[in-house]
Design brief:
Largest sheet: 5 strands, parallel
Number of strands: 5
Structural class: alpha/beta
Order of helices and strands: EHHEHEHHEHEHH
Number of helices: 8
């Protein structure tokens, strides 16, 4: 019998699922649909999100955060890393070259450690002024993943003209990752139940089951 995958998902507030009234985020929605042919859960999924984190901080954090959570002595392919990318680099004005290098370092280090890697790109933010820099990051990070043969889920292109996505971001109860904390000022508006559902759909239909060696549900 194949051992269930142990998956660590690292990233920012979107990975943490902040703002979701169901407290699932896209990670929880994807996890509950990750099942084997007997309809049993086929993976242990651990969400390790830090609100407002950029790619440089993520590059430094992920090995320590995930290292204590891997299955020891597991066969190849059991331990897997999902890198969820957001808007912090665009908001901070980080150069595209530096952002690409940070993600390349994460992917290279993970693959050298025999971890299966999947990268989930950033969705479009509510602020249209950030669309161009986030689009550039999305394209650059996708190129980094493709050059290394790592699956990449593009969440920007399908949602940049999606009415439901932006309606969810504009909902009256939409909030920032730290709406009640001064340090949260300037952080992007978060999705709610509809938005996180859309992100989960994109991940599930972006090669998730194939990446895990599972049969996609009909």
């Amino acid at each position: 019998m194949k051992a269930p995958a142990r998956i660590c998902v690292v990233g920012d507030e979107l990975v943490a699922g902040i703002g979701d009234p169901r407290a699932l985020g896209w990670v929880g929605r994807v996890a509950v649909r990750t099942r084997d042919e007997d309809d049993a859960l086929a993976a242990t999924v651990m969400s390790l999100g830090v609100p407002g984190e950029d790619s440089a901080s993520l590059r430094e954090r992920w090995p320590v955060e995930t290292g204590r959570r891997w299955e020891r002595g597991a066969e190849r392919g059991v331990n897997r890393l999902v890198v969820g990318l957001g808007h912090a680099d665009a908001m901070a004005g980080t150069t595209l070259a530096r952002s690409r290098l940070n993600v390349a370092d994460i992917v290279d280090s993970a693959t050298q450690s025999d971890l299966g890697v999947l990268v989930v790109g950033p969705p479009p933010p509510a602020d249209s002024r950030l669309h161009r820099p986030v689009a550039d990051l999305n394209q650059g990070w996708q190129d980094v993943a493709q050059r290394r043969g790592v699956p990449y889920v593009d969440c920007f292109t399908p949602l940049v003209d999606h009415e439901q996505w932006f309606a969810d971001l504009a909902a009256p109860d939409a909030r920032t990752p730290s709406a009640d904390v001064e340090a949260g000022a300037g952080l992007p508006t978060l999705p709610g139940q509809i938005g996180y559902g859309l992100l989960a759909w994109l991940v599930l239909h972006g090669g998730w089951h194939r990446w895990l060696g599972l049969t996609p549900p009909q």
